[in-house]
Task: structure prediction
Amino acid sequence: MSGDRILTLRVAAAQALTPEIRCLELVHPLGLPLPAYEPGAHIQIHLPGGFSRPYSLALAPEPMGVGVRRYVVGVKREPASRGGSASVHERVAQGDLLAVSAPRNTFTIAESAQHHLLLAGGIGLTPLLCMAQHLHARGLPFTLCVFARGPRQLAFEPQLKALGDKVRLHLDEPQSPHKIAMGPLLSDRAAGTHLYLCGPAGFMAAAQQAAAQWPEEAVHLEYFAPPASDADDGLDEPFTLRLARRAIDVSVAADQTAVEALKNWGIDVPTSCEQGICGTCVVRLAHGEAEHRDYCLTRADRRHKVALCCSRAKGGVLEIDL
Ligand code: FES
Result:
């Protein structure tokens, strides 16, 4: 990772919310305000063991002076994890100091929406709870639908209760009275409604399929990881990256990303996830057609932006504002 402002923060609290989800509360060691953030934002946490992972900020910002009082994240332990989530669960304790990037946001609330429909699968609740609290505090219309395997897997229960009847719950357990049928929920879109999705790959695929008739600009997605079906087929073509401000042509080999090729020229592009999810490496597109491979830009964004960690050129040359 490079380029983001790095903060050293103290773990003010670390507690299990469910058997699988651990919550970290991060504050400035001297009690100073932290950089402000908008709902939907994430931070990158550098963890014991050399791992660095992005985590969504789970609660609406609590203003303090020119910034905010704390960052709160919820981290699900992935059964197969030998990396980031295991490190959060096993190696981080209250009082520890962690290096954390300042918040970034690629999952923003559409200010023009007349209603916000937030669908959270599992730990995908975190950015959507933050949005829901923000909307609730402003008296703006929203519905938060939370999909969980069962009550024991449900995190941030007190915060969900505080949102009252704006929250609808779906529990997978067969006898549960809490059910939401995704198809009927998304079959009719009331004019002005925007949809926000965050959850595991299967959940995202099911919700997107159910919302296939929604206008793309009204659907906002936050992925944890690239969809499995998008595995690299290894058939990339080389291309030329033209840097408009420097008047330089940089060759990107078939087995290189644009970020790697630029690094060879001594040009560091900030990166974080390197998977097209976080938006850290996005730059302005000046000319040419990109083969977009990210999961963070909207169709409108893609007309004038490109994620350099993963995207490539269609037609051999891509000119960027760098
Ligand atoms: S580094 Fe995350 S989108 Fe490129």
In short: The mean pLDDT is 92. The domain at 115-224 is CATH 3.40.50.80 (Rossmann fold). The first helix runs from residue 84 to 91. DSSP finds seven helices and 18 strands in the chain.
